[in-house]
Design goal:
By secondary structure, the chain is mostly helical. It contains 7 helices and no strands. It has helices at residues 4-12, 25-40, 42-55, 65-78, 80-91, 96-104, 106-123.
Length: 132
């Protein structure tokens, strides 16, 4: 029987991005942990964002594509409750060892996590059209 950590790692898949001996610990964490989780949870992030936008009176869906991109960035940076919810979706797929690494440098890793997520959502803004 597999351990929970083994199951999590098998579920998420391999690293995304280059890692070499010159890579910082944050860059390694980003490519080995954050990117695979963000990719794995992509559909959930899209649905969570759509739900958030609907609950905010649907203003998002009336915006131009450029304004939607700004909206995504502003919401994730300014709405602390929403940002914490998104972080929880990511942290829930950490192994115990990854969580221990994360808590040593959570501030910088949170910035990386949210920047990656913002870019991921912005690059898929077209998927948000269907909810209007």
């Amino acid at each position: 029987m597999r351990t929970q950590d083994e199951a999590i790692l098998a579920l998420r898949g391999d690293s995304i991005g280059l890692i070499n001996e010159n890579s910082s610990s944050e860059e390694k964490f980003q490519n080995q942990t954050l990117r695979p989780i963000l990719k794995f949870q992509n559909d959930l992030f899209i649905e969570v964002f759509k739900n958030y936008a609907v609950k905010q009176k649907g203003v998002f869906f009336t915006l131009s594509p450029e304004k939607k991109i700004q909206y995504i960035e502003n919401v994730i940076q300014r709405d602390i409750k929403f940002r914490n919810s998104l972080k929880g979706i990511v942290i829930g797929l950490f192994t115990l060892e990854e969580y221990q690494d994360y808590i040593l440098n959570s501030s910088n890793l949170n910035k990386r996590m949210m920047n990656l997520l913002i870019e991921r959502l912005k690059s898929q803004v077209i998927l948000f059209e269907a909810v209007a």
